[in-house]
Amino acid sequence: MRIEKNVGERRGREYSDSKKKRRRQRMVSPVQRLYETCKDVFVNSGPGVVPSAEKIERLKAALDMMAETDVGLRSNMPYFKSTTYDKPPKITYLHLHECDKFSIGIFCLPPSAVIPLHDHPGMTVFSKLLFGEMHIKSYDWVDNLPAEPTPIANPLDKGLEDSTGLRLAKVKMNTEFRAPCKTSILYPADGGNMHCFTARTACAVLDVLGPPYCDPEGRHCQYYYDFPLANISVPEEQTGDYAWLKEREKPEDLTVVGALYKGPKIVR
After folding, report:
1. pTM above 0.90, yes or no
2. pLDDT for res 218
3. Bias category Basic and acidic residues: which stretches (predicted)?
4. Is the peptide bond between 149 and the residue preceding it cis, with omega within 30 degrees of 0?
């Protein structure tokens, strides 16, 4: 009888502990779960280091489930309204977390706001549209063509006074997104490392970068002009849309301001 009593007590404690664990899991916010997932996914993060396929899928799954309410956003907030009509709308950035391994932040875009074509050197980037409609166009560098690909369109015919510094790129994505939708992922050398966001409506994009931008380490944000080509002479298996990209300074009419994140807190 004594043994049976001990077994029953142990099972009772195990059941109680299991209930407490499930209760704690339910109480953890989606933002906290995202942070904990990022810590594991980017534990070995570094320039050009891509997490394993399993870890990428786990982080993607966590982001796929997130919506604006999980980060305390509403579409009627001032971030998503244009205050001027004689210049491009101001974009607001909400900082959630940054360390040497990864960063988490949210871009809040009013209708017609544009994040111009820019790159993510050595980074793996996850972008989740939380609400709204957005157009994304992205490119990858073309490094595997013959030494002398023959463009059918001359870059000087595209309005360029100087063709110095041009580099050939291929369109990876040219797509409209409407929330709810899946997370888009780009890699250091694939997946559309250079991309441009155009807000069709007010929208918010949750971004996770691993590793984050770091000027001292050479990971700064480079902006580009793009000059599409109608066609280019390439092997049949590499057909697609191409463009000349040319480095540029940060656009003068691009205004990104920081604001205090007021959503669920991250416990570090």
Report:
1. no
2. 86
3. 1-18
4. no
